[in-house]
């Protein structure tokens, strides 16, 4: 006999979402977590990183206060207070963790703290205790990748896990960020805005966000970072890092030649890998892919072992908290026999919280053409947008990719509050709306969202301000 309807192994976004959603449906749930509920996203990733990005935004705003008509005392110079920023960040994390723990308790989810292991019968063993469910959901998460020659010590050579939980008294004066993807771009933005001499090294041809958004959008971010002081090096091959008395020596090669930089700190942000090898899943009959992910049926999130689901960073889908939420709902609904609609991974919302922010949903222009679509593209800059000018944040672009005489295929944004603006595009892409339909909707004035409306209108061959 099962003790619970569902046993969840892992308390990150996918795990706690599955537990909360299942409990709200009246199911009996046990949740196993080896550290604290909330996982990487709450404690080492999304939330603390965005809190630090906001600290950088406030610092940047204060530095430009005079341009907005705010007079500061003569001789005033804003300085970043790294310990205070980290203290505020920790307070936010603590409050959210407390709220999440309380919600799990109110939903009567049995939270078991300990290192869980999947057994052959599908149950989960935790410190000698066995939890048996009618179904088990694996949500074992991910950890930062590391490669030989970049040995992490947590002080001079760090990952994002260390950067979001810094105990240092101050920021480094000079830093290298290895990897220009989402994590690397966000920390390069933080460091640059807080006055750190920052060099970004990316192995691919494009130095910033080489995979993901449309190049027109990514290039706006790269230009903005460069203008603010980030030194971006594409096609950079990094050699073995050498510790020195003053920091770390970083040797690298680009098409321009070989260089060596001595910096105080190196942030290694070359992606994350799934945690699947230490939970007994393979021994219990769950197939694992060559890349280390649990193999799942994406229409149900079931693994190769009957009654065992897997969701989140440990499966080969986009490693995003909101994707894990969606997969949690899908798995629970399937368990309930409700035949849910699978997640459409090609149309999910993506956000990079740099300055300026980048967000997108759907196909890039290049992807749409490669897929054989007869593509029509229109773009609209934030440079003439009244609200953007008021904010003093005019670096930005809206790019809409649509099929000729057909629906919106993709929307790509870079600019102020792109993280909030992009959901209109997400809805348009997923509902296969025509640009003319979106263009007829009224956008408030003055607002940043007007840039979206005006871009949609231009597909008619007419325009307002553009």
Features:
24 strands, FAD/NAD(P)-binding domain, 5-stranded parallel β-sheet, 14 helices, 3 domains, Enolase-like, domain 1, alpha/beta, 466 residues, 32% helix
Question: Please, could you describe this protein's structure?
Answer:
This protein has 3 domains: 4-144 and 273-345, 3-Layer(bba) Sandwich (FAD/NAD(P)-binding domain), CATH 3.50.50.60; 157-270, 3-Layer(bba) Sandwich (FAD/NAD(P)-binding domain); 356-460, FAD/NAD-linked reductase, C-terminal dimerisation domain (Enolase-like, domain 1, 2-Layer Sandwich), CATH 3.30.390. Helix 3 (46-63) runs parallel beside helix 6 (182-193). Helix content is 32%, strand content 23%. With 466 residues, the protein is of the alpha/beta class. It contains 14 helices and 24 strands. The strands form 6 sheets. Strands 3-2-1-7-19 form a 5-stranded parallel beta sheet, covered by helices on one side.
